[in-house]
Design a protein that fits this description.
The protein has helices at residues 2-13, 39-42, 125-146, 152-165, 209-219, 234-251; strands at residues 19-24, 27-32, 78-83, 88-93, 96-98, 101-104, 110-114, 117-123, 173-180, 186-191, 197-200, 202-206, 258-265, 268-275. It is an alpha+beta fold and 279 residues long. The model is unreliable at 38-48 (pLDDT under 50).
């Protein structure tokens, strides 16, 4: 009540010549106000002039909208990698999105660097394609120079260096790397956008990351459990991956259509596809 009285007194002190302010996202406007009785009030405002709605500037003339260009586009998707005793499993969904649009239902997010190392990437499709091209070139140069394929730990370091070299204009790509190391054991590496990485039992990235990590903490890392931890065979891990992507697809609109699963062993890479919901 006191604020209303103070507003009335402020307008009276200026003889009603100023308008009460109205703030909106399209600019500021005012409604002429007077608290005097008589013809002025009957006229709808000061000096009998009614307020007009087109006093609001719609960004065409006096205050144009600020327009910005972004070189990045988030195309969604989720990746997951899990390491085992003598294998690694890496998986990703196949949906390509932009905002609320599904651009494609069959786009792979997995890329084999060698026959024992696979890169999984979610984020901006164009940046992912460019990153893959750069890595493929470096892999070919290494093969020509050393007459052998690059090992998985070396590929992990190369990926970290490549991302770090672009740290001032990063690839909008969130990566996991899975493979078999020189000792024949499963290896998974987790990355941030500018190349910091570590070897972990599992890693997830992309739009469904927050749904997968708590589940993996429980069933893979065995955190906060009282039963004995056991070594899981690759077949059981594949079934866990399928359940995890079904779970992520229920809550994340950018994850769906199908999940592509690659099982990496010393004998090579086996691939299978599991259908997910399409809505």
């Amino acid at each position: 009540m006191s604020s209303l009285m103070s507003a009335q007194q402020a307008v009276k002190a200026r003889n009603g010549q100023f308008a009460l302010p109205i703030h909106s996202s399209e600019g500021s406007a005012g409604i002429a106000a007077s608290f005097e009785h008589g013809a002025q009030a009957a006229g709808g405002g000061v000096h009998g002039h009614a307020p007009h709605a087109d006093h609001i500037d719609h960004g065409v003339t006096q205050a144009p909208y600020e327009r910005r260009f972004s070189p990045y586009e988030f195309n969604g998707g989720t990746t997951l990698a899990i390491s085992g005793e003598d294998y690694a499993v890496v998986a990703a969904d196949t949906r390509l999105s932009s905002g609320y649009e599904i651009l494609s239902r069959d786009v792979t997010k997995l890329h084999a660097l060698t026959d024992k190392c696979v890169l999984g990437s979610a984020g901006c499709k164009t940046d992912i394609d460019q990153l893959r091209s750069v890595l493929d070139i470096k892999m070919k140069v290494y093969e020509h120079n050393h007459r052998k394929s690059m090992s998985t730990p070396s590929a992990a370091q190369m990926l970290g260096n490549t991302l770090y070299n672009k740290r001032f204009f990063p690839y909008y790509s969130f990566n996991v790397l899975a493979g078999i190391d020189s000792d024949g054991k499963g290896a998974v590496y987790s990355y941030d956008a500018i190349g910091s990485f570590e070897r972990t039992p599992f890693s997830a990235s992309g739009s469904g990351q927050s749904f997968l990590i708590p589940l993996m903490d429980n069933v893979i890392s065995h955190k906060n459990r009282n039963d004995d931890k056991r070594d899981l065979p690759s077949e059981e891990v594949v079934e866990i991956v399928k359940d995890a992507f079904v779970t992520a697809g229920e809550r994340d609109i950018y994850t769906g259509d199908a999940v592509e699963i690659m099982v990496i062993t010393k004998d090579g890479i086996k691939t299978e596809t599991f259908k997910l919901k399409k809505d």
